[in-house]
């Protein structure tokens, strides 16, 4: 994760873009890129069509996911958030909210289990 963050920061710094990267605009960019991931699946109604779109547009999907990841790395770096630690913590919290014995095979929210 650290090496990827360093690459993204170097890319940004070579272009002097940090001046445009305030937390609000990074968060906005992250959401916009996530919407582009969703757009790949827009209007697909059945699982076959969804899977077909993922296969046919795999490169586009990879690019959009990379954009989401890039903005996530930048936002976390700029706000001093250790993403590895944050993910470990979130998995632990979700383990409490969604114990396997109650959540297995269910799509219910933790408040409904």
User: Count of DSSP E strands?
Assistant: 0
How far apart lie the N and C ends? 34 Å
CATH topology value of the largest domain: Helix Hairpins
Spans where pLDDT lies below 50 across 5 or more residues: none
Helix/strand-derived category reads mainly alpha
Percent of residues in beta strands?
A: under 5%
CATH class of the largest domain, anyone? Mainly Alpha
The run of helices and strands is HHHHHH
Q: Tell me, what's the shape?
A: flat
Computed over alpha carbons, the radius of gyration is 18 Å
Q: What features would you describe in this structure?
A:
- With 113 residues, this protein is an all-alpha fold.
- It folds into 2 domains: 2-81, MazG-like (Helix Hairpins, Orthogonal Bundle); 82-113, no CATH class.
- It is built from 6 helices and no strands.
- It has helices spanning 2-14, 23-39, 47-56, 58-78, 83-97, 100-103.
- The mean pLDDT is 97.
